[in-house]
Design a protein that fits this description.
Layout: E1 5-9, E2 15-22, E3 40-53, E4 70-82, E5 95-101, E6 107-109, E7 112-113, E8 134-137, E9 156-167, E10 172-173, E11 190-203, H1 210-213, E12 218-228, E13 238-243, H2 246-252, H3 254-258, E14 265-270, E15 293-297, H4 305-319, H5 328-334, H6 349-391, H7 395-420, H8 437-475, H9 484-499, H10 502-506, E16 508-509, E17 527-528, H11 552-598, H12 603-651, H13 653-656, H14 658-677, H15 679-686, H16 688-697, H17 705-714
Parallel strand pairs: 2-3, 3-4, 4-5, 4-6, 5-8, 8-9, 9-11, 11-12, 12-13, 13-14, 14-15
Antiparallel strand pairs: 1-2, 6-7, 9-10, 16-17
Length: about 725
């Protein structure tokens, strides 16, 4: 039986109630709760199915509580809000905040999206958000750009938070409010303060709706802001900017600062993400003429002339005890209209976060395609090898058949993983199963652990196959590579190599944080590649920050697994293919030398000898081309894994942005599928028997001369 209610005593603020893992609000029989003597400060709801928040949810148990101060109500995994929602009316707390996660900001009426928005439909929006003092749509919310402002009619909202806004090519999540062009004060909406956190975003009237924000006292913008449209200046009288692209914003928005009047109050927080070097002094050259701009600093900085100029004489004298000598007139003379700032520092953490989203989208589209071709090519290989194995018991065909089975199994696992994977943080366009607990366990055991073992076995078989081809060419078809003793050693080696993949079990774990407060708290379900400490084995981890320092043992096992199962086996196969090529060229020279002596006196035989030599040369080129393609694909795969190790050792991104590292692991898997798709081509060109049976599988008859000729032009002799 599922446990729908979990209570936590936070001691100082009081109790927190978590309602979770239900699929319908009717499953929550809250009437039996008696909390009259309880100091409750937070209540959170997480549903396994996406639900429309409506009046079926019973919050009457909150009416009997003696309110003391603030109450935080959070919902995760909502499909939207019912237009008749009125469940907050009877709650008597002095300050109620509503926080929304992994949801869509859509309005529904009778289970259908309700988009009608004009004064005729005012009564339809009357009850929503009544009695709510603060509303926060967190980073995992999917916005609508046609939200109706009537939601806030006759409402007094102290704080409105809109986070997770993005306007990039791959990821657009833009809120917008319908312009009703109402008469002044007709909406009667009072939103005291507005906070926006965005990435590469242009602030315009689609968000700063005049009817909604004409009474707003303060505006605060964080993250990365490209520009502010001039129209919006009339609204913002008290503005606080905490931008991590301040240098870029100032350079691109000089007109904004020119329109600031003496009544406006602007506060700018200087962060370490920006470039305050003297070479970019001209970016900030006009700051001293704006007396109503105040600055605050949130990092340890090195005093220079640009910092002194920005802060002003008074504040810089406090922040810079050692006086900096500056000739500001010389700096100002250097500035001209054609000035272009140098080395504007890129946004570091946000770039990493949103780059991971873009990479995730890229991988999400390409992996199924690569996996499909891998599955299709190995199906053909398996069918051909089944037919060959009926007539031949050579070990080389057994190894090829086993490798096809392993790759087919791994492709099947990845097809299942594809439907569970989600590249948008807000879960938009994703199946609603990734956060279910047992699904996360299946992901860890089947996809992470079993899938890695299958990759290890495949890499081992490919290395063995390359070695087998070389030995057959050198010693002939009678050479027996797998003796009873060698088989035993081979099985033991595969088992030991596979055991290294246990780090996938230890380095991935179930994520039960369904309420991530900011962009950097969203790390995927389950969590992977964090290299964190062992305490998750005994505790329920709700956030990446619940961990202690990173686990050096996990990183060591990950690196060892990478070095042996990926790099070492690849190098062995590469060296073997190189030896195969050398042996092939050596045999070619010997054959041509013998043929040259035997046919020196016969012109016709000499011509045949030249044709044979040309044929051998072509086959040599085919070996080089096929090996080069395989090397390129495997090198790209190894490069992705190497970059993950680099990120952890050099920069530490895997600790705070674990999903970013997981994306590069997935990208490496994509190149693996591409290389596994190419194995059928290698089999075809390196084995005559396989090539003949492959043509029979395609039912190429003697009359299909053009197709036979085309295949024979690319076919190489048996090796």
């Amino acid at each position: 039986m599922k446990q729908y209610l979990n209570a936590k005593n936070k001691t100082t603020p009081g109790w927190q109630l978590d309602f979770q893992h239900y699929s319908s609000f009717t499953q929550l029989n809250n009437y039996c709760l008696n909390l009259s003597s309880t100091e409750l400060f937070a209540i959170r709801f997480y549903s396994e199915n996406k639900l429309i928040l409506n009046n079926i949810l019973d919050l009457d148990f909150l009416k009997g509580i003696n309110p003391k101060g603030r109450l935080s109500i959070a919902f995760s995994n909502l499909k939207g809000f019912d237009a008749n929602l009125s469940i907050f009316r009877g709650i008597n707390y002095k300050f109620i905040s509503l926080n929304i996660y992994f949801s869509s900001f859509e309005i529904y009426l009778k289970n259908k999206i309700f988009k009608k928005c004009n004064e005729t439909y005012t009564n339809f929006y009357t009850n929503i958000f009544n009695n709510i003092n603060s509303i926060a749509f967190l980073t995992t919310v999917k916005y609508s750009n046609t939200t109706c402002p009537l939601l806030f009619k006759d409402k007094l909202i102290n704080q409105l938070f809109l986070s997770g806004i993005s306007d990039t090519f791959f990821y657009k999540n833009l809120p917008g409010f319908v312009d009703l062009q109402l008469n002044e004060n007709a909406l009667n909406s009072t939103i005291m303060s507005l906070f926006l956190f965005a990435y590469k975003f242009n602030l315009d009237k689609n968000i700063l709706n005049k009817d909604m924000f004409e009474r707003t006292k303060s505006f605060e913008f964080g993250g990365s802001l490209n520009k502010i449209e001039p129209f919006e200046l009339i609204l913002m009288k008290d503005l606080h900017l905490t931008l991590i692209n301040l240098d870029f914003f100032v350079f691109k928005n000089t007109k904004y600062f020119e329109h600031i009047n003496t009544k406006d109050k602007i506060k700018i927080t200087l962060s370490s993400s920006n470039n305050y070097l003297d070479e970019n002094f001209c970016v900030y050259r006009n700051f001293r003429s704006y007396e109503n701009i105040t600055f605050s600093i949130q990092f340890i900085f090195k005093c220079n002339c640009t910092i002194v100029w920005i802060l002003g004489e008074y504040q810089s004298s406090k922040s810079c005890p050692n006086k900096v000598l500056c000739n500001f007139q010389q700096f100002l003379n250097y500035c001209n209209p054609k000035f272009v700032p140098k080395n504007i520092k890129k946004i570091f953490l946000l770039n990493i976060l949103y780059s991971s989203i873009e990479f995730n989208i890229f991988v999400w589209f390409l992996i199924p395609l690569a996996c499909f071709f891998g599955f299709l090519s190995n199906i053909f290989s398996f069918m051909v090898l089944v037919k060959i194995r009926e007539l031949s018991k050579e070990y080389i065909f057994l190894i090829m058949q086993m490798n096809s089975i392993v790759i087919l199994t791994y492709c099947f696992i990845n097809f299942i993983h594809f439907f569970n994977n989600c590249f948008f943080p807000n879960g938009y366009l994703c199946l609603n199963i990734s956060k279910i607990i047992y699904v996360q366990y299946l992901e860890i055991v089947v996809y992470d652990f079993l899938g890695s073992i299958l990759k290890t076995i495949s890499n081992f078989l490919l290395a063995l196959l390359a070695f087998y081809r070389y030995k057959l060419l050198k010693h002939g078809s009678n050479y027996q590579i797998l003796t009873a003793k060698r088989k035993k050693c081979l099985i033991i080696a595969i088992f030991i190599f596979s055991c290294l993949n246990v780090e996938k079990l230890l380095n991935s774990f179930v994520n039960i944080n369904f309420f991530p407060t900011n962009e950097f708290d969203y790390l995927g379900y389950p969590l992977r590649n964090t290299f964190k400490d062992w305490n998750y084995l005994s505790e329920n981890i709700e956030s990446i920050f619940s961990f202690d320092n990173f686990n050096l043992d996990l990183l060591a096992i990950f690196s060892l697994n990478f070095l042996i199962n990926s790099l070492l086996l690849f190098v062995i196969a590469l060296i073997t293919d190189f030896l195969l090529l050398l042996q092939f060229r050596k045999d070619l020279k010997q054959v041509m030398y013998i043929n040259g002596k035997m046919n020196a006196s016969n012109l016709n035989d000499n011509n045949k000898s030249k044709k044979a030599e040309n044929s051998r040369i072509k086959k040599t080129y085919y070996i080089i081309i096929n090996s080069s393609i395989q090397i390129i694909l495997r090198t790209c795969e190894l490069g992705c894994y190497t970059y993950v190790v680099y990120l952890r050792l050099k920069l530490g991104e895997c600790m705070s942005e674990a999903k970013f590292c997981s994306v590069f692991v997935d990208l490496g898997n994509m190149f693996y599928f591409m290389s596994s798709s190419f194995t059928v081509v290698i089999y075809y060109f390196l084995n005559q028997t396989f090539a003949d049976n492959f043509k029979q599988l395609l039912r190429i008859g003697k009359n299909d001369k053009k197709l036979v000729l085309l295949i024979n032009n690319f076919k190489r002799g048996g090796v």
